[in-house]
Each structure stands twice: as structure tokens, then as C-alpha cells.
Amino acid sequence: MGWFWGEKSSQNDPAKSLDDDLKQFLKDQQPRPYVPAELPKPVEQPASKPPEQALPDTNKSFEDRPLPKESLFQDGRYKDIWKTYVPQNDIAVASTTPVERVLAARKDRRQSIHKAALENCAFEEELQQDCFKTGPLSKKIKGRMTMCHEETKAFNRCYTLQAKFLQALGYMTSSTNTNEDEEKIQMHADKLYHRMMDYEAEVDEARRENRPIPPLSSLFNPNRPAPTVEQIALPKAMEDKMKKPLHEYPPHERELVARAALQEAKLTDLYAEDLFNYTVTMNEDRKKRQAWLTKTFGEAIGKFLIPDPPKEPSVKPYSIQQLERDIWQDESSAPTQNQAAKSSEPRQLG
User: Which residues pair with 217 in a beta bridge?
Assistant: First the structure.
């Protein structure tokens, strides 16, 4: 009964009858216990330091500098606090590349145009919202079934045309303009939009009454006739960027689309001037890397891995200022154009 209490009997040991040499051999052949190896210590490498940028010294004191315009107290109060002030634009210029500044400027301008166009179309947006939310139940059901097609169409067209007018008038393109100047441009864009809507109403009324269509005058100078398609001869590269060809637009919208395209091209040229020096530096570094690869692996492999930079044409195929003069500044056909332009536009685009 010894097994009942868990006692081990030496008679049941299978290795008892084995030879001592065989026991020693079997003991030597047993696998050794697993001991995990120590991981090698990582070699500490000096961290590569990013290239240092010459940021403005925010602790530098400007004793003789006048009080900046950011101060709310221009009478001299708290002047000692503003001695070490560095404008945000200076910090942005020192800490960002020209490409980043151009992308940020384009994004900010798109958002500003979007906001201004929505403000000018507040009445059309209110009509759209009223169609969905106000009125008797039958009107709400009809509005939801038709998705307020007429009101939505009017609001979308207002937003599109207002944005085009803002682009054509150069909204948010000049760094010297104040908030008042930009607000004047926004108000003038709304005025030109309603002038276009009044002309469309006159055309619809004339067609219903079988009367001659009233003559079309220039949107930006009502004292002279609107330019024709032949006069608005935009370059092909500029016209390809439009959503559709110029002749497919209504006659009273062609001048607006052309002027907006010219203004956007002019703004692109201003951005190109900011990128020119940066591009030259990049091309110089590109040529150095190409020369090293060419010297090491041969000219074919070097130019295959790093091709030559594209060559910019020294002379452009067209001049934006000349295009504007040809379309809107024809002195022979409009002797009073300069006076009319000053009275009808907030600033000269050319």
C-alpha cells in the first residue's frame, strides 16, 4: 500500500540494472538547460543634427524702433514690452521655404475668396434655407422633394460668379492693401454681380415681349461696349486652364472669365518671382550631385539618375499687361475710358 501514500519504490526504477558506464553516458547525452543569450548592446550613434535655420532673435532689443502697428496703444504706453517684438511674418519667412509660403498664400487666398463670396450671397443662401425650413408643411415637403432646385441653383450661381468677380478685381492679391481696401473690392464685386443680374433680367423681359435684346456693355466700364470673342484673344496655355472654352460661356460672362484668368496668371507670375531664387539654389545643388554621380559611375548613369533641370524660356510667348491693354485699354474706341475706369473700379488692374 506504499503507492497510496505517494512513496517511491526503488524496485520500480528501470535504470537500476544498468551499468554505471551506461548511466554516465546517458547522463552526458541529456540536453542542457536553455540559457537565453544576452542581447548585444546597441551602438550609440551620434544623432544627426538638422540644419540650423537663422531664426530672428526674439531677445534682441530695438531701442530706436518705432512702436509696431500691432500695439493697441500707439501713444507710447507699454513701449518697453514691444522692444523685443518680432513680427510673425519675419519669423515665417525665416522658418519656411518659398514653396511652403506660396502654398500657404494660395490656401489663405482661396479661403478668403470663399468667405467673401458667401458673405455677398447671404441673401440667396437665406432663401435656400427658408425653402427647406420655413413655411407650411406642404411647402416643406415640396422643397425636400425638389431639393429646392431653383433656390439652390440661384445660390450656387451667385457663389460662382461672386468668386469670379473677386478674382478679376484682384481680391487678396496685394500685401499693401488694408482691410478697408479689401472690403471695398468685395463691395464692388457685389455691385458688378447685381449689374449682371439686372442685365439678365432685361434680356429675359425683352425675349418675352419679342423686343430687341439690349446692347451689352462692358462689366468693368459701362461707358463702352463689351469686348467680343475676337478681341478677347487669350493664349492657348491660359485658355486650357479654364473649365470650358471661352466661346461656350454666355456673351455677358466672357469678359468676366477672361479678366479672372488674366488676374490669376498675373498672380502666378508674382509667385514665380518669389520662387526664382529658391529654384536657382536647388538647381545648383542638383548639378553638384549630378557631377559627382557622373564622375563616379559615368555620364549616362549620372544623367539618368539626376536629369538636367528643365530650361525656363527667357522670353514668354505673351505679356499679360499687353493682353489687358489690347482688350480693355483701347484709347481710340473709348476716349473716356481712364476716367470711367477710375470711377467704376476700386483700383487699376493693369
Answer: 225
Whole-number Å distance between alpha carbons of 280 and 265: 22
User: Tens digits of per-residue pLDDT, 174-188?
Assistant: 878 888 999 999 999
C-alpha cell at 213: 435684346
How far, in Å, are 36, 43, 49, 101, 137 from residue 46 at the CA level? Answer: 30, 10, 9, 33, 73
Query: Which DSSP state fits 225?
Result: B
Residue tagged 541529456 (cell numbers):
30
Q: What is the mean pLDDT of residues 339-347?
A: 40
Q: How many residues does the chain have?
A: 350
Q: Which residues contact 297 (CB under 8 A, 6 or more apart)?
A: none
In whole angstroms, what is the distance from residue 204 CA to residue 156 CA? 20
CA dist 289 and 313 (Å) reads 24
Write out pLDDT tens, residues 47-79. 555 455 566 665 666 566 778 777 888 887 888
Pairwise CA distance, residues 41 & 107, whole Å: 49
Integer Rg of the chain from CA: 38
The C-alpha cell of 163 is what?
Answer: 468668386
C-alpha to C-alpha distances, 339 to 141, 224, 270, 336, nearest whole angstrom: 53, 12, 28, 6
Residue indicated by cell numbers 441673401: 123
Burial class of residue 220 (count of CB atoms within 10 Å of its CB; 0-12, 13-18, 19+)? buried
**Per-domain boundaries in the chain:** 55-95, 99-214, 228-331
For residue 254, give the nearest of 266, 270, 242 by alpha carbon.
242
* Three-class SS state of 217: strand
Estimate the crossing angle of helix 98-120 against helix 149-168, to 10 degrees.
Answer: 130
- How many alpha carbons lie under 13 Å from residue 165 in its C-beta half-sphere? 31
| Ranges of H-type helices in the chain | 20-29, 88-95, 98-120, 122-133, 137-146, 149-168, 179-208, 236-239, 251-297, 299-305, 320-328, 337-344
Distance CA 238, CA 324 (A): 14
